[in-house]
Design goal:
Blueprint lengths: L6 H8 L3 H6 L6 H12 L4 E7 L13 E8 L2 H9 L3 E4 L2 H6 L6 E6 L9 H11 E11 L2 H6 L15 E11 L6 E10 L5
Length: 197
């Protein structure tokens, strides 16, 4: 078993190469393209987006329309890249940042392949439901025992969490670990908020 490092340290080191890895066919990052496909299927064209664990802000290059982006990330170096793409940034862990955001303050929330780094994903999702005005798009990675054992940051499998009222909820082959070569199935979940909920 490899020694664990903090997620912030890992993603700071990863920031300079992150966009290249996302585009690398060996990594096969299908979850981000699938999220954009789902989002566009429901004809969203404008509003403000909260991109949780936004990384370098690559999502903004996949969504077509007039959107303002705010990104949460634990990595300051990732957020430097996101800011270059026009993101407002929040440099905090997901759990801390979500707890501090007002109710119904963002139209759209994306949280893609990042809850694996959050121990209490159920609470994070409750915050997303509280914060979103219109829709939430989450991907939950089915993390294998081998991946948990060999990942350099602590990770958790939340793929079986019960999510009520999802309009879309299905698995795809989401990505392949660039460091371990392990293929990860990803559960894509789309929620639509009822007015006033």
């Amino acid at each position: 078993m490899l020694p664990k490092i903090s997620a912030e340290e890992f993603y700071d080191k990863f920031a300079d190469n992150y966009d290249l890895v996302l585009k690398d066919s060996n990594y096969n990052a299908q979850y981000i393209n699938e999220a954009a496909k789902i989002f566009h299927r429901y004809n969203h064209h404008q509003g403000n987006v909260l991109d949780i664990a936004c990384g370098t802000g690559a999502l903004s290059e996949l969504l077509h329309g007039d959107f303002e982006y705010t990104g949460i990330d634990i990595s300051g170096k990732m957020l430097d890249y996101a800011a270059q793409r026009g993101y407002k940034t929040i440099h905090k862990p997901i759990e801390t940042a979500l707890a501090e955001i007002d109710n119904q303050s963002y139209d759209f929330i994306f949280c893609l392949s990042s809850l694996l780094c959050v121990e209490d994903a159920a609470t994070a999702i409750k915050h997303m439901v509280r914060i979103a005005r219109k829709t939430i798009l989450i991907s939950l990675d089915e993390i294998t025992e081998e991946y948990i054992k060999n990942a350099v940051v602590p990770v958790y499998d939340h793929s079986k969490i019960s999510i009520e009222n999802a309009i879309e909820d299905y698995f795809i082959v989401g990505w392949t670990s660039p460091t371990l070569g392990i293929s990860i199935r990803t559960r894509m979940i789309y929620l639509f908020q009822q007015e006033g909920s």
